[in-house]
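Troubleshooting: if your tokenizer reports a length mismatch, compare your output against this known-good record of 416 residues.
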Amino acid sequence: MSDSTVSRRRAIALAGVGVAGVAGAAAVGGALVRGAAADDTPHPAEGAVAFTGAHQAGIVTPAQDRLHFVAFDVVTKDRERLITLLKDWTAAAARMTAGQDAGEIGAVNGVPEAPPDDTGEALGLPPSGLTLTIGFGPTLFRNAEGRDRFGIAAKRPPALDDLPHFPGDMLDAGISGGDLCVQACANDPQVAVHAIRNLARIGMGVVSVRWTQLGFGRTSSTSRTQATPRNLFGFKDGTANLKLEEPELLDEHLWVRAGDGPEWMTGGSYLVTRKIRMIVETWDRSSLTEQEAIVGRHKGSGAPLGMTAEFDEPKVAALPETSHVRLVHPESNAGARLLRRGYNYVDGSDGLGRLDAGLFFIAYQRDPRKQFVPVQLNMSRHDDMNEYLKPMSIGLFACPPGVSGTGDFWGRTLFS
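Known-good structure output:
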């Protein structure tokens, strides 16, 4: 048999199974380490963000401009198929974040008789700061029927406890929860969509898409190098957010420490998502004075009421009692802080002549029971802004630490 025949048959086989036959040989292999060296420094808008590191990229990474978030249900009952998928996803994620095709052969280099192992819509585009961040939902450990499908129920972290019902929530179960999630952030929407599309393609038969959300215009800054953005109410958002340049605060409030729970989560973080519709038409009929009193900040400068500059420390006790800034401030919540990296969204109209628009809230933390839950309860019970908000979904996920290099893959320590 000639070498060309062997190569052609190998190409057909690889193209037919995507990266499934590749990742098993070396889950991360060379693809994982061909990106930039692991560091926490900001990257150019079109450059690559390192995939490997102590923590997953896409958490403290300077927030990119675009989001494609997806939650998956695991449809297989086979533990080994799920593990193989996580290896395949890891290899594909490492390639795509480095600006390469999802598979070794790619979108156009295979034989015509076989499907490509990349969908091709990112051909010619730079990495665009793409990051891919994975999380595991409570139902992966035990499903709605209480079944331990994959033998990992004993490894469910106590911090991954089901979230309580919050006053005012009108949640749609169809866009809440999920066994797995992947957050794709990039400075080009096509790059983010391409990444999620290829992970869904690779996962066919093992996972199915439960829900998905596109986002634009980040609503917080995760680095001091970034200007504070504005939300759809027109106010600067995330002024007091945790920042990349604050390692001591990140260690205290963001990263799971040894002893916090199961060892496989040490160095990871817990993710809460919420889709919150903003009733912009009602808000837009409110006076500027009323808007500023509700938020607790001046709309133009972003300064706390009574102060002159955005980053002036607010005099919390002097703010209106039901203002948003006062109610979510650490002083009002036993020091609890979150790392937020949410996005605006507009999903057309609601059929009644109003925009279906709002905030896709994303927050990372060390323990939701001590951070998100008390802050959200305080806000949902007392915040005047609730009149203009309609929470529609919620998700909770355990995001493991980063991938270290060759032989490592998303979830390895969970399934070991």
